[in-house]
UniProtKB/TrEMBL annotation:
GO terms for cellular component: chloroplast thylakoid membrane; extrinsic component of membrane; photosystem II oxygen evolving complex
A Pfam family of this chain: PsbP
Domain PsbP C-terminal intervals: 108-284
UniProt GO BP: photosynthesis
Protein's cellular compartments: Plastid, Chloroplast thylakoid membrane
Predominant subcellular localization, coarse grouping: plastid
Gene3D superfamilies registered for this protein in UniProt: Mog1/PsbP, alpha/beta/alpha sandwich
Gene Ontology molecular function: calcium ion binding
Protein name, as recorded: PsbP C-terminal domain-containing protein
Organism: Anisodus acutangulus
Length: 289
């Protein structure tokens, strides 16, 4: 940021010529007015002081654009240390408040309807669809890469589901969901350890009259910083990731449908209401013959 210097224009603005600004040619249009040095200095000092008082920096005269500070044209007399301190503090404040502002923004949803496979749900408008992820449908947050949702559908040829109660009570279904996640996240790396738990299980009847199960699990992944070290004290386990997995289970068309949502625990705390809205919107629909 550049601080404007007005010291070079004081003399011209107030009609106080200096030695460097006096014309040297004798063929000038206007006659040169000779002012004694002492008298010129005595007149220029109070005028300059008045100008400085009128244009001194005030906090109300600052404008902020993004992460920079813009001064208005009248803000000429600014001490360098104060200006740099203001710029630095505003930069830190803007960066510190950015995540809170981002989370505070309202989320717009779009509805995804799959008439061929028979399900629908709402998802954040800014999420992008990822193809080739292995699921029937997959959406991901473009800013938080560990946050995504997907839909899995069982094969009707391998099993015939009549109701979600075929999975047992919600607690038993929750244990099955956790086992499935741990199987998928199984790692062959040395020194990897997973901690998991079922946080909650519940059931609800939606406005379509169908029964749905909801399951929430937490999985933490730890890995050693030096898995090839011989001595145990040289292998220190560190947290790789801490995520929450939320599933909504429903049955229709002799198939088991599962809406999966993955999000980091620290993000879930900020976006819980939006994630609950996605879960509540999930519906399984009868496929027309």
């Amino acid at each position: 940021m550049r601080i404007l210097q007005a010291s070079n224009i004081y003399g011209v603005a107030f009609g106080i010529p200096s030695i460097s600004t006096l014309p040297k040619s004798s063929s000038q249009r206007h006659p040169t007015i000779a002012i004694p040095a002492g008298e010129a200095l005595a007149k220029s000092v109070p005028i300059a002081r008045k100008f400085s008082e009128q244009h001194s920096l005030k906090m109300g005269d600052m404008e902020k654009e993004g992460s920079s500070v813009v001064l208005e044209k009248k803000d000429f007399a600014v001490p360098r240390r104060k200006a740099m301190a203001l710029i630095f503090s505003s930069f830190l404040l803007s960066n510190y408040e950015l995540p809170k502002v981002a989370y505070a923004q309202s989320v717009e949803f779009r509805e995804y309807i799959d008439t061929f496979d028979g399900y629908s749900f709402m998802y954040p408008r800014n999420w992008i669809q990822v193809r080739g992820a292995g699921a029937d449908i997959f959406f991901r947050d473009p800013l938080v890469l560990d946050e995504n949702l997907s839909v899995e559908i069982s094969s009707p040829s391998s099993s015939k589901y009549k109701s979600v109660k075929d999975l047992g009570p919600p607690q038993e279904a929750g244990r099955g969901v956790l086992r499935q996640y741990l199987t998928e996240f199984m790692s062959t790396r040395l020194g990897v350890r997973r901690e998991s738990s079922v946080l909650s299980t519940s059931s609800r009847v939606a406005d379509d009259g169908k029964l749905y199960y909801e399951v929430e699990v937490n999985i933490k992944s730890y890995a050693n910083n030096n898995e090839l070290a011989v001595m145990p004290q040289d292998r220190v386990a560190r947290l790789e990731w801490d995520r929450r997995y939320l599933s909504v289970l429903g049955v229709e068309n002799n198939c088991l449908y599962e809406l999966r949502i993955q999000t980091p625990e620290k993000v879930f705390v900020q976006e819980e209401s939006d994630i609950r809205a996605i879960m509540d919107s999930f519906r399984v629909n009868k496929i027309a013959a």
